[in-house]
Amino acid sequence: MSEFTHFDAQGHAVMVDVSDKQETERVAVAKGEIVMQPETLARIREGGVKKGDVLSVARLAGIMGAKRTPDLIPLCHPLALTKVTVDLALAPERNAVEITATCKLKGRTGVEMEALTAVSVAALTVYDMCKAVDRGMRIENVRLAHKSGGKSGVYEAS
Question: What reaction does this catalyse (predicted)?
Answer without folding.
Answer: (8S)-3',8-cyclo-7,8-dihydroguanosine 5'-triphosphate = cyclic pyranopterin phosphate + diphosphate
